[in-house]
Amino acid sequence: MTLMSFAAAASTKFLDFLYPPECVICHTPGTFLCADCLAEIEPIAEPLCPTCGYPLPAPHAECRQCRRYPVRWVSAIRSVALFTPGVLREAIHKFKYQNMEILGKSLAPLLTTCYTINQMNAQVIVPVPLHKSRYKQRGYNQSEILARQLSTQLELPVDTTSLVRHRRTKPQMSLNATQRQSNVAGAFLCNGNTISGKAVLLIDDVCTTGATLDACGAALRHAGASVVTALTLARAV
Fold first, then answer.
1. Which is deepest, 1, 156, 181, 210, by most CB within 10 Å?
2. Which contiguous run of DSSP H or E holds residue 15?
3. Domain 43-235 adopts which CATH fold?
């Protein structure tokens, strides 16, 4: 352990002593997301679309999501659970909008499990980037926090510099599917050639129509990525 990592660990333990962590959902002391609350998260199970990862009504059924929102540049999207009211949705909101960066440590293992179960294979992890103005406003990128935690758990490198959001976009939540695609089209680009020839794993918190992930995938593929897959905590219904 380096001196800096030792100091960081000591600081965390001291803060835990002064302000003991408690579950952000049920307030049980001991951790920021307790085991009982985590157990309430129902993972997306097969059958699911091999491309977009949306649950199917039956094996080999037509994927209505892919018909409505085709994904061109990302070969496979997988998500931990559906973005329905409950523990995961509330935790993501707190993580993303209420400055609870610490939740990244509790949420990242869900991504690790999903990655393993779906037998995904990547060489480098890339978080979906924020525009610099949005980053300055929020103070952190929740996708980058997840990516760094996942990097440690999977022992894969994380690249936070190659993919950039060079054009500020409107929040996707307020837009319909067609507007979402137009909003993020050409909003991302890749610097350099560090991801050329590599299998890239994109990380984001929520996938709605896949427009943002696909726009990122286009930039990564044009920069030489051999394949792009994506992993998110939640998938919108």
1. 210
2. helix 3-18
3. Rossmann fold (3.40.50)
